[in-house]
Design a protein that fits this description.
Blueprint: H1 19-25, E1 32-38, E2 41-47, H2 55-75
Antiparallel strand pairs: 1-2
């Protein structure tokens, strides 16, 4: 069964992911989520952080972090 609920968008465009959904997907504080629009829906995907011993994975993580910073700066 897939948990389903409704959330309200704040004036800053923020939403809170309800606890049952966070638990079902193993999302916790500090996790990174990728966000995209698809077929009129907002899709959040949990990004698994690479192990420190995997340089290529860290490069991808760092690029995503830079992109998040660019998006945040655009909202200011």
């Amino acid at each position: 069964m897939r948990p389903k609920t409704h959330v309200k968008v704040t004036r800053k465009g923020q939403v809170t992911i309800p606890l049952p959904i966070r638990k079902a997907l193993g999302i916790k504080e500090g996790d990174i989520l990728a966000v995209r629009a698809e077929d009129g829906k907002v899709i959040f995907e949990k990004i698994d952080l690479p192990d420190p011993g995997e340089p290529k994975g860290w490069e991808v993580y760092e690029e995503r972090t830079r992109e998040l910073d660019r998006v945040r700066e655009a909202w200011r």
